[in-house]
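Blinded run. Sample ID left blank on purpose so nobody reads anything into the name before looking at the predicted structure. Input follows.
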Amino acid sequence: MKRFFAPAPESVAQARDFVLRALAVWNLEGRADDVRLCVSELATNALTHGTGCGQGFHVTISAEDTIVGIEVHDSSPHRPRRRRPTNDDISGRGLHIVGMLSDDWGVEDRGVTGKVVWSRFKTVPATQEAPC
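Blinded prediction complete.
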């Protein structure tokens, strides 16, 4: 599933809702909180750093077997980088959060049309218990 979001602050909440609805339809809500937070961080980064000239961003969510994938596409060719925020910094922790909560993540160039930042999550259906 793929959806476009306008370059507006409310798009971050809309992106979260979009992925949560998809997880519910697929009965893959076992890691919904992790997925939701990572989508929030990546959408915020796209909105803040990747949507120049009034362009928005796309969010794609997919599920295959026990893997949920999210991708956030934006128009900036500049790759995100992990920062080293101090205790006093009010930003700069997003990619650290994505790295801690997801099972894998990365960045791929889309040529002259920007980049995609992706994240993967191992999950189980909400009605199935996770193994110990």
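Unblinding after everyone has recorded impressions. DSSP finds three helices and five strands in the chain.
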